[in-house]
Predict the 3D structure of the following.
Amino acid sequence: MQRKKKRTSKTARRRDPHASREASRYGQPIASRELILEVITETDHPVNRADIEALLGINDPDGVEALRRRLNAMTRDGQLVRNRRDCYARADQFDLVPGRVVGHQDGFGFLVTDDEGDDVYLSARQMRALFHGDRVLVRITGLDRRGRREGNVVEILKRNTQHVVGRFYNEKGVQFVIPDHKRLPMDIAVPAGESDGAKHGQIVSVEIIEQPSKRSPPVGRVVEVLGDHMAPGMEIDIAIRSHDVPQAWPPEVEAEIAGLGEQVPTKAKRGREDLRELPLVTIDGADARDFDDAVYCEATPKGWRLLVAIADVSHYVYPETALDKEAFERGNSVYFPERVIPMLPEVLSNGLCSLNPEVDRLCMVCEMIFNREGRMIRSRFSNALMRSHARLTYSEAAAIMVDGDKQARKNRQPLLPNLDELYRLYKVLRKERSKRGAIDFETTETRIVFGAGRKIERIVPLVRNDAHKVIEECMVAANVAAARFLERHKMPTLYRIHATPSGDKVTELQEFLNELGLGLRGGRKPAARDYSAVLEQAKGRPDEHLINTVLLRSMPRAEYSPDNIGHFGLAHENYAHFTSPIRRYPDLLVHRAIRHVLAGNKPRTFPYTVDNMLGFGEHCSATERRADDATRDAIDWLKCEYMLDKVGETYTGIITATTSFGIFVELQDIYVEGLVHVTALGNDYYHYDPTRHWLIGERTNHIFRLGDPLSVKVVQVNLDDRKIDFELSEKQQRTTGKKGGDKVTEKGKAKSRSGRKRKTSLRRKSR
């Protein structure tokens, strides 16, 4: 104690370069993480908390407590390591790597490092004590036989899995649950008396009461019996719980929304721009229930005036309320077949915030002026009051604007000037889009049609008409205007970014295109217009689908970030999500930033910093991926269920992916994908070429390539694993088994027996 007092008394509080940032976040001043790491680095040995207090000049009780909490948080996040003597050191001083565990269904796993370096391989032995998603510290031990970094787990920083959904088994008194999530390849032991009455084979939700260790499996108790394995709607219940999608509203949220009615309060309408007489209309899908955007367009002497009105969610959802915290946790609405898990309660999403026809609604309006070439000359934002004059479906809007349907136009006579000008503006914007070089991938999305008892009748493609594209262009324009507005006012916000493809992905793509006689300009960092040029060259080719697919797979996924690097796919330097605050939390943050500026406030008084936005962006990107994974799981289950009674039937399909273990085939007109394992490809040894995206037979030289048509037979459907297995049809086997059907030249190009180059046929990342 004497040493501590002596050092503290002689050490002045050290100046923190990030003091203003920390003061804006916390009422009690607290040393920044950067400063703590700096002072620990300056020592040549681990230091205890008393030493750190002295080094920072902290001697007041509140400061000591704040430091204690921060050190605990930094240890939890893997920035610091605490040894058995309660001394702290930087994790990298021990050559330890923090990151998140990604499990594999075969038992091994990988560490996705925080520094975004190469993944670290974790053996099945290391994974015995871990769940997918756990945060750990790993020591690199060397390279595995494949040349990958391999590591041993030193410390588990944070457990990710507290609940698991799976199938309950009771075998001779031994109770356990096999998780539905394929990245959790370990059984959960269920002690006697903890089954909650579950029967053998039922789907249950399990609370983990003992995490796994190297010597024992995880232990859990059944907290909810979801029902029988094949019960209608079970696929969605499983997906929701497997991916931890929040669905129940906390009591605090219920309390906050209890006083909301169906009508906008009179007080809320004051001080807003009144647009109720302007014929704004909504254009959405026939099954849409929440309407967050409305549009109006009119001609001007030099071009057009476009208004995009967006539901003013920020008026009802205030920062740090229970409602706001729950919306953030959800991140976005999740859309399952015939079921939605909304980001906001229905009283808001389908009620007060939804731009329903013929009722007053609060909105934020983006007014844009375009010249005759489709270039945005200026824009402005305002808080407004509107009344939608009509709710149009895409089909009805297309009939009016595109087809010129006389009856449809007669039914909407007062709206025709607006809609006709909207379509004229759209055609100009499409030309400007092409000139800009934005990338347009044509992909097929599907919809599952249910019959009685929620039995799947068919799977049909979703048809996009020009009305979809009209609204899409309007929303893109408003998103660009929002990003430019916030960039101009230097506001911390979330941008929707899409990085430029680079590195090995581009190199592999260029090698692939060279094989087809095509070239990708732009060197190591091509521009969007370079991609578009390839797509244009590919139009009408037999291998157009193949080229589209490979181009798409070469691009990174779009995400949210305060670092505005632009949007590669759309070829925009500034882009932010503004148009869907009912179903996306980033849009709500953008609205709050715009509202802050409109109120005449400065960026420094905004309650969110760039660092806050960084955390928001990571979280919202993660919830977006969670929603995609959950919906894909549910849809895969439904497709497997649809194919259960089709085992033994033969179909024509197209190869959608090639791997070292086989080929994936999508059935034509059914839109269901399955695997033909490499062992079912015929009496030959097949080698995988990742550059050319093909499997080639060693004896026959037969090639299976992306986009090739194929006749296959359904041999097995595994509902639990969401897998469908195909084999080649008898006719296809006879074709495949012939020798010399395809030759491979010295340059690696496939040629037919006649010597002609072999042609192939083939098939959107989130905006």
